[in-house]
Design goal:
Blueprint (H helix, E strand, L loop, with lengths): L1 H22 L10 H12 L3 H13 L2 E2 H12 L5 H6 L3 E8 L7 E10 L1 H20 L10 H18 L15
Antiparallel strand pairs: 1-3, 2-3
Helix pairs in contact: 2-6, 2-7, 3-4, 6-7
Length: about 180
């Protein structure tokens, strides 16, 4: 029948593609688990994936000004995020320097620069650690299949995401920023 022939053709193409993928190993595979990891931390900490992507970019930049933040968010996402929202959610904090005087009391001065909050910094470092752990656990990085150790880690992350969504486990949101 016609449907059976189409199915056979499709199956034979898939077999051919898998054989070709196994023969031609890929050089670059470090971003293989990036989407899974970002989604996991997004659910775990009640953060949007876009905010995490910007945070990963800013982490490497260090301190940033308001204009640099707009440029970074536009570069990463293709649209501007507002720094006010980012600060209100507790993702960024203003940099405060202390001016010391000999005869007067020390003053706290805003520098006009911002930095990632300590909580978001911890999450960014956890993302890098989880990605490194998954890449080390993947025994066959060039294969189309996921190795058993990496699969075990991914299943644990999926289980935790399900428990958080089903309200069986609490998420760990970032504390909101309170102005001084």
């Amino acid at each position: 029948s016609r449907k059976l022939r189409k199915r056979r053709r499709y199956c034979s193409f898939n077999k051919w593609y898998l054989k070709k993928a196994r023969k031609n190993p890929k050089k670059y595979y470090t971003l293989r688990y990036n989407g899974i990891i970002l989604r996991y931390f997004s659910v775990k900490h009640e953060i949007q994936v876009n905010d995490l992507q910007v945070a990963l970019f800013i982490y490497n930049a260090g301190d940033f000004t308001r204009e640099e933040f707009y440029n970074y968010s536009e570069l990463v996402l293709g649209r501007r995020l507002t720094l006010k929202r980012y600060m209100k959610l507790g993702y960024a904090i203003p940099e405060i320097r202390v001016k010391k005087f000999e005869r007067k009391k020390d003053e706290k001065v805003l520098t006009g620069k911002y930095e990632i909050s300590k909580q978001l910094l911890k999450i960014v470092l956890d993302i890098y650690r989880k990605q490194e752990k998954l890449l080390n656990a993947d025994e066959r990085p060039n294969s189309t299949e996921i190795g058993p150790k990496a699969s075990e880690i991914i299943n644990a992350m999926k289980r935790e995401m399900y428990e958080i969504k089903a309200k069986k486990r609490k998420s760990e949101p970032i504390m909101k920023f309170v102005e001084l």
